[in-house]
């Protein structure tokens, strides 16, 4: 069994692959390329939940017919955090992957898709895996919101926190990755390194380099956990 890691952009993909030793093999997929090192395939699937879902689905379909199919999918990258709980450069492991803006606006406020009577708006990664990865990396644990539009105001940040108390961060791909993984019956995890605060956009305050370095460090520490858990769960199954 292999581990599929899906990022949005190549710089995030490269930050993840730097954590793994060994020679790199590249595998062409429709519209994308897997970077394979050891038990890990890392894919830059594109920004936003739709691109992430499509890229993940293609990768899972290719792995399903191989001699070593995927046993775990990880959505990974940098993201904005609801500081000061999660400061810049810190790491977050999601215990809930939440579609924060999938639903309907009404006169009484936002209704998630589940309140409309269809679909789902949350995926829950395996709790034991969340705990083990957080322990290995020193990450904070909490919900990570998936949004299609990055938050750019204090008002919007406040509204998100009011709707999703305890949320630690927002990003744009986790729910799409989780949707594809769920349809393939493969467990999912989301790992985010904090590059900026959620709220008014201040590019001068962003710490993208620090966040990418934290992402590399995190996967270096988490790799044995991910490989061990993947093998154990599938042997038990």
- Written as H for each helix and E for each strand, in order along the chain, the element string is EHEEEHEEEEEHEHEHEH
Number of strands: 12
Coarse morphology? globular
Spatial sequence of strands, sheet with the most strands: 5-11-10-6-12
The percentage of residues in β strands lies in 25-35%
Q: Whole-Å distance between the termini?
A: 12 Å
Mean pLDDT across every amino acid position: 89
Q: How many helical stretches?
A: 6
How would a textbook summarize the main sheet? 5 strands, mixed, barrel
Name the structural class: alpha/beta
Cα-atom Rg, whole angstroms? Answer: 17 Å
The helical percent reads 25-40%
Task: Give a structural overview.
The protein is an alpha/beta fold. The chain is about 35% helix and about 30% strand. It contains 6 helices and 12 strands. The strands form 2 sheets. Strands 5-11-10-6-12 form a 5-stranded mixed beta barrel, surrounded by 5 helices. Helix 2 packs parallel to helix 5 and helix 3 packs across helix 6. The chain is globular and about 55 Å long. The mean pLDDT is about 90.
Short description:
The protein is of the alpha/beta class and 237 residues long. It has helices at 10-17, 49-64, 127-137, 154-163, 174-183, 208-236, and strands spanning 2-7, 25-29, 32-37, 40-44, 70-81, 91-99, 103-106, 109-112, 122-123, 140-146, 169-171, 188-197.
